[in-house]
Amino acid sequence: MRRFELAEPQTLEEACALLNDDGDAKALAGGTALLTLIKHGIFIPKTLVNLKKIGGMSGIDYDRQRGLRIGALTSIYDVESSPLVCQYYPWLAEACHLVANIRIRNMATIGGNLAHGDYQSDPPTALVALDASVDLTRGTGTRQIKLSEFLLGSYETALQPGELLSALVVPPPDSWRGTYIKFTTGSSEERPCAGIAALLRMEQGICRDLRLVVGAVSPRPVRMHHAEEFARGKEISEAVLQTIGAEASRVVDPIDDLRGSASYKRQLVGVLVRRALAAVIH
Amino acid sequence: MKINISTTLNDRTLEVSVYPNQTLLEFLRDDLCLKGSVEGCGVGVCGSCTVLVDNRPVSSCLMLATDAAGKRITTIEGLGRNGALDPVQEAFLKHQAFQCGYCTPGMIMAVKGLLLNNPHPTESQARDYLSGNLCRCGTYVEVLAAVQELAGR
Amino acid sequence: MALVGRDVTMVGGLAKVTGAVNYAPDLQFPRMLYAKALRSPYPHANILRIDTAKAEKLPGVVAVITQDDLHGLNPYFGPVVDDQPVVATERVRHVGEVVALVAGESREIAEEAVGLIEIDYEELPAVFDILEAIKPDAPVLHAQRKETTAGVHREEFNFQVGGNVCSVYHVEDGDIKKGFLEADEIIENTYTLPPVQHGHIEPHAATAYWEPSGKLVLHTATQNPSGIQEQLAQIFKLPENQVRVIVPLVGGGYGGKTHARLEPALALLARKARRPVQWVLTRDEVFLTGRRYGALVKIKTGFKRDGRILARQVEAFYEIGAYALNGPVNAKTGCYVSSGPYNIPNRSLTTYSVYTNLPPTGPFRGVGVSHVCWAYESEMDDIARRLNVDPVELRLKHLVRERDIFVTGEELISVGVTDCLCRTAEAIGWKGKEEQAVPPEKKNLLRGKGLAVAIKSTTTPTTSSASVRLNADGSAVLLTSSVEIGQGLLTSMAQIVGEELGLPFERVTVSSPDTDVTPYDKSTSSSRTTFHMGQAAQQAARDVKNQLLDVAAKKLEARIEDLELRDGSVSVRGVPDKKMSIAEIFRTRFGSTVGSMFGGYCFKTAGGLDPETGKGKAAAFWFFSACGAEVEVDVETGKVRVLKAVTAADAGHAIHPKQCGLQNEGSLLSGMGSALFEEMVYDNGQPINSNFLEYMLPSLEDHPQEFQSILVETPHPDGPFGAKGVGEAALPPVAPAIGNAIANALGGVRIRDLPIKPDKLVAALQAEKENR
Q: Are the beta carbons of C372 and C312 closer than 8 angstroms?
């Protein structure tokens, strides 16, 4: 790897100050994405700010009122294997489990995963469905924004210079039932061609509420508001599933990539949305 | 500027200095001459550089050496005791679970990680856990057989 | 037999499971430098100016080589055509071509120095598509070409000069026009295959240094030490004994390490640096260095309604990239097998190797054959469907049998293809015609089974030589330049030598190649080692054995025919008391119990083809194989899962059945990848998936739940103990077996361009629906 300097701050404030003072410096968390970019020469840094020496930035807390709070440096594996996450948000555990391989999940952090802004990833889709937020800090102050507003596009986020993603906050699961489906077009190890997160609240066979998010087909996870609206108050019959699938297929704006053509992805979304909902119901 | 770190490698404490841009894999191979962990893809996909950090498998090609500070690192060279092989190594030999052998140390470390985490994996758990370690010679059936024996299945 | 045919413990296992193997990237030498290449960013351009001044001034940079350092050398090389420059001269012909090579004190310094080299290019029009490349107005890559004096027998090729067609090969029999005229039906289709990666997990790696005497020493991960020696001697105008090639255990090759890649430029750099230099490629560089040919295969078959195939015409174009390498060999090898292992009375078969501005190619497990097999085995199933007959029956009716005359005019022997097919069909649970029945509609998951067979030659004529050294204590070493690349020759060759010398397996070891010590071998390719080197090893051992028997016969006053060599002594059959140990024989012959007895043998295969007619003897032995697959197709998403797979190969006589089985497993996995998802993608010559994040190899999860390897054994009279090769035999039928299984699941809907990715299947199903 090309030579670079490494700053190893002990506190969040220090880290933010370093990033603020040197606009070209980049924050390094798990490193699985950033070091790959450096190795490929896509990014040639002078200084990396290593966050891993900062205490208190990892760990998972759950509170029935406030929900889940996950420190940004928590590894993806620690999220997927957390008894709290497995119990209250099994579909989030599943989305995390489906990321890359065990080694990468042991290294990569949930904060890094979100801040990287890679659309071909699983956790962002599940988290947008959960209406998660992220804490962005400058060391001195912290703002919280919805993840859906944080993810702006392919490798684009709302992170400002000198700002760090410090924590992930997920509202309580209430009575959601859900699923996450990752679909790959090649090897089992590939990144998703499409990812579908579906959360459903049912009462006596009637859909009270639906959250439906399509990920990996376009530069950011997209909530299917129309489809959600349509489903509310309806009995989820085969015909309704078909309609929701068709609506999702119509609304998405897929991009061509190595995992599939735009037209294929559009069609695929319809199928997967229908299957995801059917899986939640049954 | 080199960075001083203290780390535990194969049960021995080391006080060393490493370069900021040095990966753990480079540190093991270049500085310590531990050549059992090898680079295949450099991007965390193939698994040939798998080592355990605090008993969990990681891709040493994507971990900075400085992040080994305060951690317990186990490499293929650290398996076995007093000249005896580790049971995973024994099982690989018994089932001929290798061909060219280039991916083998990484595969063995991944199996080690699996069994530390789950001593009795089912076949599907083993497939799921080990699918991130690639073998182009095609020796997966034998690796699975070795794991099934180790798992007592 | 005591050793042959037994699954003895594989040699080298202990080093492999403990990480103790020193592969080429692991080697370290005092004062060693690191090489890094500056590569062309353009697919086709003139080099106007190179300025290395800044790079050379960077502290820690020891040497930089460019086209200016080629004086006094033969600057072009290649296994068949000398068209490849040591470093780019005046022109670059593909993205990633090496324009300069830097030696630095560290990898980082070398990499930084590469960034300081200034180059001005003038872009030239480039061509990437096979059919575009052969058009008369296409940009020409090589206006002039010089044939080499090294390498394979170049007289067997029809080289073309002027355009981008590098070579043409043609063979025919019967009367193709008449055949088509007499046919009741004719089907005609075009099949394509993209370039794919060998995927050896060990990248290309080598270390070079020059001894003060002017001798070049190379430690390199190659499948071909003798070939590297020959080529380097030619480039540097040295006698071959001044080039020493040493090969450690190789971390996978699959054909990708058959030809000189790093060695010429690295040797030049080491000469300039006057220090050892090591060059290990990164994975994305491996993608720019070698790959399997892309191909387009046109196939046309005429048949009678009673199921007799009368005529087959094949025209195949192999896209060989910017330099020939073994492209012409590949096209030739693909040509004469392009109608399959079938008796068809009228055939016309033509293949072309075609230059494009894409990175260079090279032999790949199943050389040339996977391409045509994909076409002819898909076509066989289409014909069966048209005729409404069982595709297995259709094949059986036409399969070649023992002593049949092949299209090249030669008699086929050791023909186990019928057994391969029948046993595979049984293992996959083939039920006959109903496997092609149209499945019920309105289900998302459809299942189907498919079968395919293949025939392949081994490169012929070639030479392998071996030497056996027997020590007085009854231990022996086989000296061979064959390379251990995971196939297990350290084990199988020891079995052969031990069997011949009556020694326990543990008493025989096999050397690694070192051209100062080990004799010539054509190469570890074409799955030729067991047959060729096995024969050389057996005969070399027999040479030693004869010397032992000679001495013993005199001393024991017995006839040689009455003696047997077993467990380290020679005894008279039936008279157990009359015996001599190997040590006693040494004392009798040399007067003491120290010393060595040498045996040697040079095994040459006869044959070759007339380049005008394509007739002669193509193969010292033929590979036959089959694959069966059962798949599940998700018709809504187009996703295919291989549930079960069977691969069968005719091993002649399996020296080590387990190792043969592992070869079958490897063939399946590689074949499955290229059937379903492996594909190198370029955008105007720029590779866009040249790493393992974007180009995935099949994983353990992709491996079918059920896998079975079958070894058919049809002994070959010229093979050691009847053995033939198996390494690549089972790869070519894998993709068509999977393609046929998919077509059978979908009532005949077929994808003809690999890989069969979900989007193609969904589109094909949609088109089918609209056509109905």
A: no
Token couple for B63? 């971990």
Per CB-CB distance under 8 Å, the chain A contacts of B129 are 102
**Domain-wise residue ranges, chain A:** 5-50, 60-170, 177-281
Sheet holding B56-59, edge to edge: B12-18, B3-9, B72-74, B50-53, B56-59
Mutate which: B99, B107, B109, B139, vs C, most C CBs within 10 A: B99
Report whether pLDDT(C484) > 80.
Answer: yes
Tokens at A271, concatenated: 């199928």
Going from N- to C-terminal start, the domains of chain B cover 3-78, 87-150
Each residue's pLDDT tens digit, A80-99:
999 999 999 999 999 999 99
* Secondary structure element (H or E) that encloses residue C318, with its range: strand C309-321
Helix (H, G, I), strand (E, B) or coil at C364: coil
C225 to chain A, closest Cα gap in Å: 31
Which DSSP helix (H) or strand (E) runs through C176?
Answer: helix C176-182
For C25-126+198-287, the fitting CATH number among 3.40.50.300, 3.40.50.720, 3.30.930.10, 3.90.1170.50 is: 3.90.1170.50
Chain B residues closer than 8 Å to A107 by CB: 44, 58-59, 62-63
Place of tokens 């996870």: A221
- Name chain B contacts of A48, Cβ cutoff 8 Å: 20
C397 token code pair: 């009716």
Looking at the complex, does the CB of residue A208 fall below 8 Å from at least one CB of chain B? no
Q: Which positions in chain A touch B121 (Cβ < 8 Å)?
A: none
One CATH from 2.60.120.580, 3.30.420.40, 3.10.20.30, 3.30.70.20 for B3-78: 3.10.20.30
CA distance B93 to C376: 40
- For C487, name the nearest residue in chain B, comparing CA atoms only: B99
Taking CB atoms and an 8 Å limit, are C17 and B102 in contact across chains?
Answer: no
Is C462-604 a CATH 3.30.365.10 domain? yes
Rounded Cα gap, residues C603 and C540, in angstroms: 10
Burial of C11 (0-12, 13-18, 19+ CB in 10 A): buried
How far is residue B58's CA from residue A52's CA, in Å, rounded to a whole number? 16
Model confidence pLDDT, tens digit, residues C152-195:
445 567 777 779 999 999 999 999 999 999 999 999 999 999 99
CATH domain A5-50 topology: 3.30.43
Report the residue of chain C nearest B75, measured CA to CA. Answer: C19
Q: C151: pLDDT confidence band, cut at 50, 70 and 90?
A: very low
Closest-CA residue of C relative to A32 is C693
Cβ contact (<8 Å) for C19 and B143? no
The answer to whether B132 contacts A39, with C-beta atoms less than 8 Å apart, is no
Does domain A177-281 match CATH 3.40.470.10? no
The residue of chain C nearest to residue B19, with distances taken between CA atoms, is C108
Out of C681, C691, C759, whose CB is closest to A264? Answer: C759
Mutation target among C17, C219, C697 for the B interface, most CBs of B within 10 A:
C17
CATH architecture for the domain at B87-150: Orthogonal Bundle (1.10)
Residue of A nearest to C113 (CA): A2
ipTM exceeding the 0.85 mark: yes
pLDDT digits 0-9 by tens, C210-232: 999 999 999 999 999 999 999 99
**How many CB pairs below 8 Å do chains A and B form together?**
79
Domain C294-459+610-771 sits in CATH at 3.30.365.10
A183 touches chain C (CB under 8 A): yes
Query: Class of A60-170 per CATH?
Result: alpha beta
User: For all residues of chain C together, what is the average pLDDT?
Assistant: 96
Cα–Cα distance, B68 to B54 (Å, whole number): 10
The widest CA-to-CA distance across chain C, in whole angstroms, is 89
Distance of CA C473 to the CA centre of its chain: 39
